[in-house]
Structures are given as structure tokens and as C-alpha cells.
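Q: What residues go here?
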């Protein structure tokens, strides 16, 4: 390396190169433009969907149910939130929201108080109705060329996470056997979350979790809503497998759909061993009252193995939420990436995207990415959880993992938070690459290549964007 090398100049060159090259958001939940216009979130609604609120503010002790009660006047919300908001300023989640709102609206969150919160509220509402707002943030400012939208999550999984987290039922197996059959179909439909691609430079992934628990009659309407077909007519395992295969065939033929996604880790372990077909048949052959937790788990294991094999045959990558389930009482340890080892080994033609780096077990993710050519690592959410942890993980990954196997994702609902996440993540990656350049481990040009691959090229190749 030349003695004239300047790290500060390289950092600025890296930012400019990324602006020119463009980015791909390899995982996000962004509300579509028309959906946002219809919902018309103000400041409090916007914050309630941010990770700052979902993690740090909750942890700091806000009475969330009271705060979100639609009957509570907005000025009272300000009085409830502002003292707690100050306690979160040292967190990475706060920094991301601060960056996003500052760069999008030129508003300093540190100055937010009871006299000016209405100003930010109005700025957000004006953006909701602005026809070119998504283009302004995602395209003109971030140069996002494409992305992978997490399109939907079934109401059953949403309800289960909330119910188990509240302690109303012991675990997922009890929920699916005893609670789910009592739920009204309309109630479950209302809890199903769907995202639109409207206004977004993205394609989408399809969450397959509803297929893992779709055997009870009570869940068939959810399958119909999310995937179509005729699930009500399914009577046995062979019929169910035909239904699943038909769905996967439709997905692979749809140019707007580029991947499968699973977040079932929110309620159960990532361990999916091989299961005998006869064991999986029991959920169709026995009355529900005769089924056990083992029956529920065996069916899920069987179907997940089936889906992963079929995904490989159809060229569909599959994204797995790994690591902390972020809600409820499900232990992080059950969500460790290493539990996927057997499934990955049995499906060598299937490409696995390990979401969130498996935090806090990011070392296990790296091990899998090195051991298996079909495993990729995704920084989505990891860069938001902890700036210091993200840097340590990235340093370790770059020491072990080839540069073509690491991706970035925004993982946000609103574009302003995505912008903040991108800015923070970009500096994390540039800093870590800069350290390696300063130690002569890689050249400045190598660093630029790694940067472009992490933020754009790797996801573009993996998902054929």
C-alpha cells in the first residue's frame, strides 16, 4: 500500500462509490406507498413500528398498551413517551431513528418536546401523501436498485407469538392444538399482515410458515387467503403435498417473487430432523384431541424438509430468521443457526439466507457459511441491534467468509427508518473494511469491491434481481 494512502479519503471514496453503484435491500418489511397513504401514520404511529419503540422504549418501561390506546389524547402520549425516549439515546436503535428523521425531514430528534412534536407529526403526514416520497428516499437519496420485501405473515403466527408471550398458553404446540381451533377466522384474517410492492424498487419473498401448520381445518382459510388454491379439499398428506408443490410452482413462475421466507423460529426450534412420512400422516388420520406435541412438531419437520428440497429444485432461495426471536418467551438458544445444519446438509441445491446473522450466535452463522457453499449471511437487523456487536461480527465474518456471501438488509416498515439504518450500516462496514486496509490485509480496491458486494451485488446475484 502506498505511504500516501489516506483512510479518510478512502472512506469518502467508498461513500461516493456506493452512491454511484447503488444498493439492494436484501430484506425489508416496507409498507407500500398506497398502503402508507391510506394508513396515514403520524409521529406516534410511525414510532410504534420502529425498532426503537419495539425494543428499546418497551425495555425502558413504557406502558405500551396505554400509549397505543386510540382513546389516549396525543398530548398525553407525548407526556408518556418523552421522558423514556431520553433514556434510549445511547442505543443504536435511537441513532438509526435520529439519522433517518434528521436526513429525511431535517428534524433533530434530540430536540423533540411537548412544544414541537406536532411539527414532526405534520412532516410525516405530508410525506405520506407525497407521490414521489418513496422515490425521493429510496431511489434518489439511497440509490436502491432493488430489494426483497417480506410480503406477508399469517395471522396464526402473529396471534401465537402474542398469546404465548403473554403467558396465556405454555408453548406453540399447545397453542396450535388447543387455542387455534377456538379462534374466529375473521379474527385471524385481521391479524394477518400483508405488504404491497407499490412504489418500491423491490421484488418479494413469500413466507411459508402457514404451510407448516396448515393441516387443521381451522387454518385452511388462512392458506386460501395467502396462497390460493383449494386447501379446503385436502384430506390426507399426499393431497397436502400436492397443494404445497402447486404453491411452490406458482411462486417460482411469478417474476415478482424471488425467495421463500420462514420466521417460524418465533415459536419453535430451528431443528428440523428427518421424519418418517407415516409419522407426519397422523395429523390427518387422528382426531385433534388424540394428537400430541410430538405430532405437531413431526408434521412441521416433515413439511419443512419437503419445502426446502423443492425450493432447491425450483431455484428459490429460502430466508430463515435465525437468532433472537425478538418477542415472547421463546429462548434464543433454540433459534441458534447451528440447529439448521442437518437441513442445510440434506439440501445442497437449496440456497439458505441466514437472516440477522443468527445474533447473538453470529459465530455459528459464519461457520455454516464457510462449511456449506449454499449458505449466505444477512446483516439485516444485526446492524441495528448493537453498533459494537455488528462491528465485531463483521470483523469476524470478513476474516472467515468469502466476500460474495454477505448481504445487507434494512428490515424496516417505513422508508425513513430504512434510510437511517442504511446510513448507520454503511459506516459500520466502511469502518471495518478501512481497518483491514490500514493493516494492509486488503487493498483499497479490494475494500471497494467488498463494499459493493455486501450492499448490492451479492443479493442481486442470490435473488436474480
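A:
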Amino acid at each position: 500500500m502506498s505511504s500516501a494512502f489516506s483512510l479518510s479519503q478512502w472512506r469518502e471514496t467508498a461513500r461516493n462509490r456506493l452512491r454511484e453503484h447503488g444498493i439492494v435491500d436484501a430484506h425489508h418489511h416496507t409498507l407500500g406507498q398506497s398502503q402508507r397513504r391510506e394508513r396515514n401514520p403520524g409521529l406516534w404511529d410511525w414510532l410504534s413500528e420502529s425498532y426503537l419503540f419495539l425494543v428499546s422504549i418497551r425495555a425502558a418501561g413504557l406502558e405500551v398498551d396505554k400509549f397505543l390506546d386510540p382513546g389516549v389524547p396525543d398530548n398525553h402520549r407525548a407526556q408518556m413517551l418523552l421522558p423514556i425516549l431520553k433514556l434510549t439515546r445511547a442505543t443504536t436503535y435511537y441513532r438509526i431513528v435520529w439519522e433517518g428523521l434528521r436526513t429525511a425531514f431535517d428534524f433533530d430528534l434530540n430536540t423533540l418536546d411537548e412544544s414541537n412534536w406536532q411539527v414532526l407529526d405534520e412532516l410525516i403526514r405530508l410525506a405520506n401523501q407525497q407521490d414521489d416520497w418513496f422515490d425521493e428516499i429510496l431511489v434518489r437519496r439511497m440509490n436502491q436498485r432493488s430489494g426483497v420485501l417480506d410480503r406477508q405473515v399469517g395471522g396464526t403466527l402473529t396471534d401465537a407469538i402474542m398469546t404465548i408471550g403473554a403467558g396465556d398458553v405454555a408453548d406453540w404446540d399447545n397453542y396450535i392444538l388447543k387455542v387455534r381451533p377456538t379462534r374466529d377466522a375473521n379474527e385471524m384474517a385481521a391479524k394477518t399482515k400483508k405488504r404491497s410492492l407499490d412504489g418500491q424498487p423491490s421484488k418479494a419473498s413469500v413466507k411459508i410458515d402457514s404451510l407448516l401448520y396448515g393441516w387443521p381445518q381451522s387454518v385452511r382459510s388462512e392458506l386460501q387467503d395467502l396462497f390460493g388454491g383449494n386447501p379446503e379439499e385436502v384430506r390426507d398428506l399426499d393431497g397436502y403435498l400436492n397443494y404445497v408443490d402447486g404453491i411452490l410452482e406458482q411462486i417460482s413462475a411469478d417474476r415478482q417473487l424471488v425467495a421463500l421466507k420462514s420466521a417460524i423460529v418465533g415459536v419453535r426450534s430451528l431443528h428440523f430432523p428427518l421424519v418418517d412420512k407415516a409419522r407426519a400422516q397422523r395429523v390427518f388420520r387422528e382426531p385433534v384431541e388424540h394428537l400430541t406435541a410430538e405430532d405437531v412438531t413431526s408434521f412441521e419437520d416433515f413439511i419443512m424438509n419437503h419445502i426446502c428440497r423443492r425450493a432447491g429444485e425450483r431455484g428459490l432461495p429460502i430466508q430463515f430468521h435465525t437468532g433472537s426471536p425478538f418477542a415472547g418467551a421463546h429462548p434464543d438458544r433454540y433459534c441458534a443457526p447451528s440447529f439448521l445444519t442437518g437441513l442445510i446438509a440434506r439440501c445442497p441445491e437449496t440456497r439458505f439466507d441466514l437472516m440477522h446473522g443468527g445474533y447473538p450466535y453470529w459465530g455459528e452463522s459464519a461457520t455454516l457459511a464457510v462449511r456449506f457453499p449454499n449458505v449466505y449471511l444477512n446483516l439485516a437487523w444485526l446492524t441495528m441491534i448493537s453498533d459494537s456487536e455488528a462491528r465485531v461480527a463483521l470483523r469476524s465474518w470478513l476474516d472467515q467468509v468469502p466476500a460474495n456471501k454477505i448481504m445487507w438488509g434494512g428490515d424496516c416498515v417505513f422508508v425513513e427508518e430504512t434510510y437511517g439504518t442504511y446510513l448507520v450500516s454503511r459506516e459500520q462496514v466502511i469502518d471495518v473494511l478501512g481497518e483491514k486496509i490500514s493493516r494492509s490485509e486488503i487493498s483499497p480496491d479490494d475494500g471497494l469491491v467488498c463494499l459493493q458486494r455486501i450492499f448490492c451485488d451479492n443479493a442481486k446475484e442470490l435473488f436474480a434481481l
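A: Context that may help when evaluating the design: The two ends are 35 Å apart (CA to CA). The chain has a mean pLDDT of 96.
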